[in-house]
Structure formats: C-alpha cells, structure tokens
Amino acid sequence: MDQAPAPEVTAQLADRVPRRRLLAWGSYDWGAASFQAVITTFVFATYVSAAVAPEDGAVSGANWIAITNALSAVVVALSAAVIGQRADRLGRRKRNLMVFSVLVWVAMALMFLVRPEAAYLPLALVLLGLSGIFMELANVSYNAMLQQVSTPATLGRVSGFGWSLGYFGGIVLLLVCYVGFIAPEVGWFGVTGEDGLDIRTVALLSAGWFVVFGLPLFFLMPESAPDPGRPRHGVVASYRVLLADLRQLWRADRNAFRFLLASALYRDGLAAIFSLGAVLAVTVYGLGADDVLVFGIAANVLAALGALSGGFVEDRIGARAVILISIGGMVLAGVVLLFVSGPQPFWVFGLLLTIWVGPAQASSRALLTRLAPPGHEGQMFGLYTSTGRAVSFLAPSLFAVFAAVGSDRTGIIGIVVVLLAGGLLMLRVSAPRRPVAVPDPATRAG
C-alpha cells in the first residue's frame, strides 16, 4: 500500500492547485472524447468503412482503416517518447499540447469534406491517420500534466475524475449526434442523410465540441518549467539522449520498466474489449443494432462511474491494487461470457466487464505519474504511449487465432489471455511510495 504523506504537507500542496486549473484540465478530457467516441469508434470511421470505401474493392473499408491505424501506430511508437522528453527538457508541455490539439481540430473539421464516394477514400484515410497520430502525441503532454493538477494525496481521484469526464463527454455528444442528426430523417438545421451530410455535419460538430471544451486548459494551465540542467539538443541527438536516459532508468528503477511492459499488455486487452465488444454482441449474443448503441452508452456510463469511484479507492489502497482488482474482475467476467448465451446474460456480464475498464485506465495513469522521475513525466508518458502502440496488435491477433480455431465466442479467450499476461507481470510491479516533496514550479504556480 502507498505511504500517505503527512497531513500538513498535503494541505500545503492542496492550496497550490487551484480548482479552476483542475476543471480546465478535466474539460479538455470532456472535449477530447469527441475524437474517440465519434471519429474513431461509433460514427465517422464506420461511415468511411461502409459508405466511402468501394463495396467491390480488393481491400475492404475495414481493412483500409486497419492498415491506416497500423501505420499511425508505427509513427507514434517511434516519436512519442522523444517528443515527451523534449517537452520535459524545454518546458513545452502546454505548447506541444496546443500544437497537436489544433492539428487534431483541423483534421476533424476537414472530415466534413469526405463525401460517400470512393474518390474520397484517400482523403478520409489521411485525415483519420493524421488525426490519430496528433491525438496520441497530444495525450503524451496532457497525461504528463496530471502532477500539475493534483497532490500526492489526491492523484488517484484526480486521474479518475479526468477519465470519467472523458467517458461522460463522449456519451453526451453521442446522444446529441444521434438525436439531432443521425436518427431523424430531417435533423436539426434541415440536415439529412443525403450525400452523407448527417455524418459529415457530426464530424464538424465534434471538432467544434473539442475546441470549445479544450480551450480553457490553454488559458488556465501554466507552462511546465524547463530543466536548466539538461542541455538543448536537436531531434536526432534527442534519440541518443533518450537511449542514455533509458539505460539510466533501467539501472536505477527496473520497476518502472516492468510497469510499462505490464500496462502495454493489459491496456491492449482493454482496447480490444471496446473495439470488439460490439461485434461480439451481435454475432455471438444476438443483440440488435439499436440495442448495441444502447449497450455502448450504458458501458461508457459504467466505465465512467468506475473510473470516478476507483480514483477515491486508489487514494486509500494504492493504484497497483486497483489495477490488479480491475484486471481480475475483467478476467472473471470474460470467462463467464465464454459459457453463457443470449442477450440477457451479455447485458449482465458484458456490463460487469466494462465497469472495470475505467478504474484500470485511470489508475494506470496515476501510477505512472508516481513512478516517473521528477521532470521526466512527459518522457515517461511518451514511453507509455509507445509501448502500448508496440503491442497493439496482440489482443486482436490472439482473438483472430482463437476465433479461427473455434468461433467468435472462443476468440474471447485471446482477450482474456492478454489481460492475464498483463496482470501476472503487474504482480511484479512494486507500489511506489507517495512523494511528499514540493512539486515543480509549474505546479506551484497559480
């Protein structure tokens, strides 16, 4: 269990984290949910696969998107850690977040130009690929800011607060899009489905949503302080510095390396739960298309509540314990789903599965913040992103292998195996002691 800081230290630090800064940080998560929920999961990517890609093409729309995602993952894996390291060294976390956020906003807005014709497929794929890269790189700096909006005593609940706002923001926006533009024949402002206008408008709305809720962070969050003890380097030299830092980290703290590897595995399992859950709901458990959307909303609500409540629990028992409990809950629910049939059991155990996703995600971010050497948070979250991307093929591949041997139902075994592997490695990660030192100057500002 993590060691609690002295009460007087906690009170002192708490006074130096203004509430408006915390709310601005959470508002960004609320806004960024528009990208994950609308663009990459439920609406725009589906539109590209079903309506933009040619039906008789040698490569299906889904495969085109998968190829695009794979290429994007390679770029992120090779660049995230160095970008995070340079932001730490130069004091440019907020600047980096702003640059990459603006690039995401522009790419999302340009998706309005994608009409349901095969000629627009290259544009759609380029926009999906670039926006995915920029969003991942923005998250490196965003996650590194966690220590600027929390204290050692509140780090878990603050991380859970951000994750829960992200889930709730996605749910609210999905409902707005569905009620206002997707469900009715003639939506708000006279928008119809002709020429894909409803989906294209939703993409534009999502960009505006992200801009409105993302901007407060840039006005209220101070820039991180540069590290005067670390010299400036060019991009190529930064890779050499990164390798040297990694060797030093390996010698000084192998616990952090074990966590990066463990989290890469179980986070891949978490991603598979959401990316493959809708497919399994229809092909294995017999849910209708409308029921899947309702299930998706319910799953996100429970994941948000789980993240929020898990954060408070974490500040009492530690992030490591919350992560292990969450993995255990997901593995148990996944095993039960192997043996049940029909929509009703899926509603019960499928939702039980998703309720643990939020706490695992939020506590992972909090734990890495505790493990990161002071002043290296951006670099560590860059490595966190890179390692996650490096193994992102694993759960889908194992799902495909087990499904090929049996059916889509047995494919669940592949996801369970990845979660178990991450959990077993997580057992070798030691819980860090809560720091009680005064945080960096950017945290004290405000």
TrEMBL record:
<dbReference type="InterPro" id="IPR050495">
    <property type="entry name" value="ATG22/LtaA_families"/>
</dbReference>
<feature type="transmembrane region" description="Helical">
    <location>
        <begin position="202"/>
        <end position="221"/>
    </location>
</feature>
<dbReference type="InterPro" id="IPR020846">
    <property type="entry name" value="MFS_dom"/>
</dbReference>
<feature type="transmembrane region" description="Helical">
    <location>
        <begin position="64"/>
        <end position="84"/>
    </location>
</feature>
<feature type="transmembrane region" description="Helical">
    <location>
        <begin position="264"/>
        <end position="287"/>
    </location>
</feature>
<dbReference type="GO" id="GO:0005886">
    <property type="term" value="C:plasma membrane"/>
</dbReference>
<feature type="domain" description="Major facilitator superfamily (MFS) profile">
    <location>
        <begin position="1"/>
        <end position="434"/>
    </location>
</feature>
<keyword id="KW-0813">Transport</keyword>
<protein>
    <submittedName>
        <fullName>MFS transporter</fullName>
    </submittedName>
</protein>
<dbReference type="InterPro" id="IPR036259">
    <property type="entry name" value="MFS_trans_sf"/>
</dbReference>
<keyword id="KW-1133">Transmembrane helix</keyword>
<feature type="transmembrane region" description="Helical">
    <location>
        <begin position="346"/>
        <end position="368"/>
    </location>
</feature>
<feature type="transmembrane region" description="Helical">
    <location>
        <begin position="380"/>
        <end position="405"/>
    </location>
</feature>
<feature type="transmembrane region" description="Helical">
    <location>
        <begin position="30"/>
        <end position="52"/>
    </location>
</feature>
<dbReference type="Pfam" id="PF11700">
    <property type="entry name" value="ATG22"/>
</dbReference>
<keyword id="KW-0812">Transmembrane</keyword>
<keyword id="KW-0472">Membrane</keyword>
<feature type="transmembrane region" description="Helical">
    <location>
        <begin position="411"/>
        <end position="429"/>
    </location>
</feature>
<feature type="transmembrane region" description="Helical">
    <location>
        <begin position="321"/>
        <end position="340"/>
    </location>
</feature>
<feature type="transmembrane region" description="Helical">
    <location>
        <begin position="161"/>
        <end position="182"/>
    </location>
</feature>
<dbReference type="InterPro" id="IPR024671">
    <property type="entry name" value="Atg22-like"/>
</dbReference>
<dbReference type="GO" id="GO:0022857">
    <property type="term" value="F:transmembrane transporter activity"/>
</dbReference>
<feature type="transmembrane region" description="Helical">
    <location>
        <begin position="96"/>
        <end position="114"/>
    </location>
</feature>
<feature type="transmembrane region" description="Helical">
    <location>
        <begin position="120"/>
        <end position="140"/>
    </location>
</feature>
<feature type="transmembrane region" description="Helical">
    <location>
        <begin position="293"/>
        <end position="314"/>
    </location>
</feature>
